[in-house]
């Protein structure tokens, strides 16, 4: 079947007389023959014939066809089908309506339609036209007689405009008086009264319209008689049109008078409430018109936006009077007010649906009326959930319920169903009744606390959701629209604080959106913004109190706006942090919580970069410092920031560690720094009390409250263990990922910062405040095997947990055995736990790895700490003396009691640590023979020392200051307890042989810790070097200083040990090695190597250099660095200048080489210092260095190892072979006498390159 477009396109309308006429007729005929119907057929199948006819008429009216052509074609088409005439008349009706509704009556198009109709009237079916067309159209086209038109108008006038005439002389006052009497019989049945009224109408010929008017008058005088008048009106007036017209006439009359009586609004509300008529019936009679209201709303909006500054000025009284008069004339607002005052929320909502909601709600009279009604509704529930004592009487609300008022809810669930929708509607308009605000907050806080403490159920979830919506849409907007009122803020906080963090922050986010988008609060927000900026311009240290009070007032009603401005200001000017933080002390709890949200939101949504690949940007440093200071000083919830930091660590954003570091430092007082006094460092090796009193710059007892809040936030959010593990894992990410896109100096600084944060966090977690949270950490087995942590971090995080488990097991064993407390030694339990830990360690490496060293030894090394193997007696005595001096200088009794308590606790802690260290040493002596397994082959010693350094010493000595001292002390402890198969001399030789790679591969802080470790080792060595008595007492005849390694069944000889003078030669060689390595680093020209070398020298300064010539060589190289870096790298120049001054201050303590060890005149040419001087003068120091764990000393026994031989150049290997021959000669039994003779003859000793050796047999 051809489509409509094809039928139309095939017709040539311009050539109508030629091809167009035939084409149109053929198309029309084809469609009728194909479809077989004209209008519809079957299942609503549309016909295309009407569209074709419309096209024909459109061309005749708007196009090129003549009126006669259209008329002729219509006459021809009627012969095709009987329904065609009806279809043609329908088409004419469509065009008639179209042209009548537009301004086309006097145009040619209307005239052309008239000509078509006239043609059809003459040629074809005028009866159908008279039947279908409008009467006005027929008259216009002269298709009906004028007499008929005149008669029609007369009949219409008689029906609609002619009134019935009553004989006013027959009306008597008696009829109206009897009517009024009947209407006052409210006790009678309405049916009886209606019958009597109708009798009066017939008897006295009373005007029926006047009867309706009198009924409404009486109803106005007694609006509460609803049960009587509503049925009466329904019976008397089943048709509401006349009733609404009478009421509308009354509204029109009062509109002219200016004031509409309240009684009229009351009866209209009652009639609407009882569905006598609808709002649509009465709304058109009310004034003003909706267009006027819309115009007024638009003008108010423009005024708010364009005259923001007017919000800062007091409103004119004349303007207020004008607004009051306009409100009294507004019948729509008056009807809304009466509906609210009567308690008909149904009627109120019907009126509100036809008016702008804010326009109605923001009127004080309407808001107050609605609040009074809500007072009445919640009264019963308020008595139950107010939180007051039952003996306290609660005043009844000042609201008289009407017959159409809502019923009072009995339960809170009913309140949430009935009252909360009203509160949603009121929104910020609740500010007009603050008493109601307090009532609602008391009810919701009581109910919410009960909901949070019971298992979830459908009713509780429904109530929780409704309360949440009410807080966000009503309470918080109300707070923003009132003047500064801290009591309202605290009342709302009593509700909000019961929600979890995510819900609270979601509320604050929506609150911020409300402040930015709602026009009602626009002026208030602008006022707060202007005042906040003014305060921030004036804030300083001198006016903190004054500005703080102003900021406190601003925070009561606009905290989000205020804190956004404060954060922006402190990010620009970091010197404002101190005064601003002090000025925040007048805030409410809600304001502090909003401050936490604003900080959280600023960190999350700030698109600025936090670092520039060279360092952290100032704005983020300021934000971090401000955040930490605020959290320390005020009770702000830490959960949001901790969760943010955790999320950032998950996303490998290491820069945010600065925020965590600042928080830990401010709230716990734990500041990890290498700039510490010797007294502080020694105190870190004591107990918890000594650490708190002397280990940090701040007194730890001053941070107890803030540290407890931090602990509470970590425990509540289950972050104690995850945060520590993430910090440990972040170190590896910094090394392998951050270094790809950032400068090496920044990566090293970032790594140190991450490590310091880990140390801070670990120190806090292992402290006394977190003692009840140890169990939240995974076991050491899980940390090592599942989380893949290194030994240092895994044991650092678990060390406190291990001691806690030991104490618990000890207490449990004592309880089971019915023993007294303290009967079981805790160290025995601790060593049993270490045995279990060793099994986990053993799984990490293949079995051949444990051929030379036992996993039990590794577990003991990593489990113990500095306070387990040493007691800082002098530090305890200094601190006790200090506390006693404070006590003597104080006159207050409370201070005396406090100091006495601290002194007693320190004495007790000292005794406990002494006993603990004694027990630890006894257990170490018990197991010392099982740690190092001596094999029959020569490389056994080499492998054992290598594994000990790799697994234990090197990872831990750079972890922290206390760990560096622990490593040095642990080596000394192994020597002191005469550990079997452990060579102290060989270990020291391996440590000092070449420190080049060890120093250059460290970060800045690690270089300082490595220096402290070697300084502690050298202190012990130099103590042995200083006196033969000390050396003989502590080193002679000890396994650690054996030079000949024998199989266990061989007899040990006295001369197997190193003698004192030979030991001094070895010490000189070690000093030479250290000097050579450090000068190599200083000559490298690389920033990292030079910086680490200088830092290393600074930490070694107490014990190195002590030989004057070596010190002069170092000083010369340092001065050269100063000259080269003076105008290039200022940080290196400053560091070198600092060390140069420190080195010069030690020059008086330098000694000559002859005082350091025995040197004769004949040996001077071969003196190592001379050769070192030549090397330095010629600047031809060998750059050849060995791998970190290989032996670079050709005189040591490890040089015979195959691995060591492969790592050296051939010339060094040849030199080794010649020296080994000399070694074998010097230490053979036949050469012992020759050695004695040489000693007597004072043969010059070998140079450090050929010093005394450790020779295995």
UniProtKB/TrEMBL annotation:
Residues 877-900, 1188-1257 are annotated as: Disordered. It is found in: Nucleus. Residues 903-930 form a coiled coil. Keywords: Coiled coil, Nucleus. Residues 551-622 form the THO complex subunitTHOC2 N-terminal domain. Belongs to the THOC2 family. Component of the THO subcomplex, which is composed of THOC1, THOC2, THOC3, THOC5, THOC6 and THOC7. The THO subcomplex interacts with DDX39B to form the THO-DDX39B complex which multimerizes into a 28-subunit tetrameric assembly. Component of the transcription/export (TREX) complex at least composed of ALYREF/THOC4, DDX39B, SARNP/CIP29, CHTOP and the THO subcomplex; in the complex interacts with THOC1, THOC3, THOC5, THOC7 and DDX39B. TREX seems to have a dynamic structure involving ATP-dependent remodeling. Interacts with POLDIP3 and ZC3H11A. This is THO complex subunit 2. It comes from Panstrongylus lignarius.
């Amino acid at each position: 079947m051809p489509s409509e477009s094809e039928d139309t396109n095939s017709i040539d309308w311009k050539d109508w007389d030629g091809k167009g006429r035939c084409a149109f007729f053929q198309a029309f005929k084809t469609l009728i023959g194909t479809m077989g119907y004209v209008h519809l057929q079957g299942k609503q199948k549309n016909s295309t014939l009407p569209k074709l006819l419309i096209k024909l008429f459109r061309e005749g009216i708007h196009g090129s066809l003549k009126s006669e052509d259209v008329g002729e074609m219509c006459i021809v088409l009627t012969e095709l089908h009987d329904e065609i005439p009806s279809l043609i008349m329908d088409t004419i009706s469509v065009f008639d309506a179209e042209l009548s509704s537009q301004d086309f009556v006097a145009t040619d198009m209307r005239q052309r339609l008239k000509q078509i109709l006239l043609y059809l009237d003459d040629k074809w079916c005028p009866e159908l036209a008279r039947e279908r067309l409008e009467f006005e159209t027929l008259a216009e086209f002269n298709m009906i007689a004028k007499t008929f038109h005149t008669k029609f108008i007369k009949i219409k006038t008689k029906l609609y405009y002619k009134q019935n005439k009553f004989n006013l002389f027959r009306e008597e006052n008696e009829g109206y008086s009897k009517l009024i009497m009947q209407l006052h019989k409210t006790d009678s049945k309405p049916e009886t009264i209606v019958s009597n009224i109708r009798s009066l109408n017939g008897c006295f010929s009373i005007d029926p319209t006047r009867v309706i008017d009198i009924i409404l008058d009486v109803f106005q005088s007694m609006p509460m008689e609803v049960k009587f008048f509503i049925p009466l009106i329904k019976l008397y007036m089943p048709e509401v049109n006349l009733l609404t017209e009478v009421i509308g006439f009354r509204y029109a009359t009062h509109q002219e008078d200016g004031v509409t009586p309240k009684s009229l609004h009351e009866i209209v509300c009652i009639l609407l409430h009882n569905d006598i008529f609808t709002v649509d019936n009465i709304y058109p009679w009310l004034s003003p018109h909706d267009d006027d209201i819309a115009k007024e709303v638009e003008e108010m909006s423009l005024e708010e936006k364009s005259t923001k500054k007017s919000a800062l000025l007091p409103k004119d009284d004349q303007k207020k009077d004008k607004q009051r008069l306009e409100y009294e004339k507004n019948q729509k607002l008056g009807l809304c007010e009466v509906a609210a005052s009567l308690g008909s929320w149904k009627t109120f909502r019907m009126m509100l649906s036809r008016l702008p909601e804010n326009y109605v709600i923001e009127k004080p009279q309407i808001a107050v009326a609605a609040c009074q009604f809500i007072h009445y509704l919640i009264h019963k529930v308020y008595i139950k959930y107010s939180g007051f004592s039952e003996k306290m009487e609660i005043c009844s609300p000042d609201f008289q319920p009407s017959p159409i008022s809502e019923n009072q809810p009995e339960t809170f669930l009913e309140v949430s169903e009935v009252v909360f929708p009203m509160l949603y509607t009121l929104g910020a308009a609740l500010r007009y009744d603050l008493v109601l605000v307090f009532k609602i907050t008391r009810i919701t806080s009581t109910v919410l606390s009960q909901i949070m403490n019971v298992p979830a159920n459908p009713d509780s979830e429904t109530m929780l959701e409704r309360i949440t919506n009410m807080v966000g849409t009503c309470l918080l907007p109300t707070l923003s629209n009132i003047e500064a009122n801290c009591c309202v803020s605290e009342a709302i906080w009593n509700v909000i604080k019961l929600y979890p963090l995510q819900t609270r922050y979601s509320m604050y986010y929506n609150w911020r959106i409300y402040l930015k988008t709602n026009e009602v609060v626009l002026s208030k927000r602008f006022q707060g913004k202007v005042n906040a900026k003014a305060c921030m311009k004036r804030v300083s240290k001198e006016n903190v109190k004054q500005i703080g009070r102003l900021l406190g007032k601003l925070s009561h009603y606009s905290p989000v706006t205020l804190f956004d401005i404060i954060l922006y200001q402190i990010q620009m000017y970091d010197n404002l942090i101190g005064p601003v933080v002090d000025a925040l002390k007048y805030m409410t709890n809600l304001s502090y919580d909003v401050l936490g949200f604003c900080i959280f939101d600023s960190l999350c949504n700030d698109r600025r970069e936090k670092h520039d690949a060279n360092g952290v940007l100032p704005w983020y440093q300021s934000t971090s410092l401000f955040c930490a200071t605020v959290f320390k000083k005020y009770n702000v919830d830490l959960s949001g920031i901790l969760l943010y930091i955790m999320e950032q660590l998950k996303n490998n954003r290491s820069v945010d560690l600065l925020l965590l570091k600042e928080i830990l430092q401010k709230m716990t007082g734990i500041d990890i720094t290498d700039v510490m006094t010797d007294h502080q460092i020694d105190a870190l090796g004591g107990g918890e009390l000594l650490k708190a009193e002397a280990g940090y710059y701040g007194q730890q007892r001053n941070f107890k409250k803030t540290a407890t809040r931090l602990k509470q936030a970590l425990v509540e959010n289950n972050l104690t263990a995850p945060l520590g593990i993430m910090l440990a894992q972040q170190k590896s990410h910094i090394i392998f990922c951050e270094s790809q896109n950032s400068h090496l100096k920044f990566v090293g600084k970032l790594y140190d910062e991450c490590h310091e944060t880990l140390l801070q966090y670990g120190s806090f977690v292992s402290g006394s405040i977190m003692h009840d949270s140890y169990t939240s950490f995974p076991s050491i087995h899980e940390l090592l095997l599942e989380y893949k942590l290194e030994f240092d971090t895994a044991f650092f995080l678990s060390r406190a947990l291990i001691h806690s488990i030991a104490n618990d097991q000890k207490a449990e064993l004592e309880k089971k055995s019915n023993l007294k407390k303290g009967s079981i030694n805790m160290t025995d339990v601790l060593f049993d736990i270490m045995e279990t830990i060793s099994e986990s360690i053993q799984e990490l490496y293949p079995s051949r790895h444990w051929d030379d060293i036992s996993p039990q030894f590794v577990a003991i090394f990593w489990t113990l700490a500095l306070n387990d193997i040493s007691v800082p007696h002098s530090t305890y005595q200094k601190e006790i003396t200090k506390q006693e001096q404070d006590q003597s200088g104080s006159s207050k009794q409370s201070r005396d009691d406090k100091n006495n308590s601290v002194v007693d606790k320190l004495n007790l802690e000292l005794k406990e640590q002494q006993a603990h260290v004694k027990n630890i040493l006894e257990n170490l002596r018990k197991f010392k023979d099982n740690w190092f397994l001596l094999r029959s082959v020569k490389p056994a010693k080499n492998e054992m020392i290598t594994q000990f350094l790799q697994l234990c010493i090197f990872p831990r000595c750079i972890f922290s200051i206390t760990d560096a001292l622990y490593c040095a002390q642990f080596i000394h402890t192994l020597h002191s307890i005469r550990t079997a198969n452990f060579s102290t001399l060989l270990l020291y030789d391996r440590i000092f042989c070449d420190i080049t790679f060890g120093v250059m591969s460290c970060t800045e802080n690690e270089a300082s810790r490595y220096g402290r470790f070697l300084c502690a080792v050298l202190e012990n060595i130099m103590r042995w070097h200083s006196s033969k008595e000390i050396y003989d007492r502590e080193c002679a005849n000890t396994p650690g200083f054996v030079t000949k390694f024998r199989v266990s069944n061989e007899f040990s000889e006295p001369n197997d040990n190193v003698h004192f003078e030979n030991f001094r030669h070895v010490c000189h060689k070690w000093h030479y090695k250290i000097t050579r390595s450090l000068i190599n680093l200083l000559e490298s020209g690389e920033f990292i190597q030079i910086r680490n070398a200088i830092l290393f020298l600074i930490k070694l300064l107490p014990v190195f250099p002590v030989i004057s010539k070596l010190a002069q060589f170092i000083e010369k190289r340092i001065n050269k660095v100063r000259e080269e870096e003076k105008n290039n790298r200022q940080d290196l120049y400053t560091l070198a200048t600092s060390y140069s001054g420190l080195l010069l201050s030690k020059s008086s303590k330098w000694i000559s080489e002859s005082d350091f060890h025995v040197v004769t005149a004949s040996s001077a040419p071969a003196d190592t210092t001379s050769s070192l001087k030549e090397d330095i003068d010629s600047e031809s120091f060998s750059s050849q260095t060995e791998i970190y764990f290989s032996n670079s000393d050709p005189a040591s026994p490890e040089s015979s190892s195959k691995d060591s031989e492969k790592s050296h150049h051939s010339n060094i290997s040849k030199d080794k072979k010649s020296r080994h021959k000399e070694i074998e000669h010097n230490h053979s039994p036949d050469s012992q006498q020759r050695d004695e003779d040489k000693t007597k003859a004072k043969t010059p000793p070998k140079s450090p390159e050929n010093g005394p050796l450790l020779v295995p047999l």
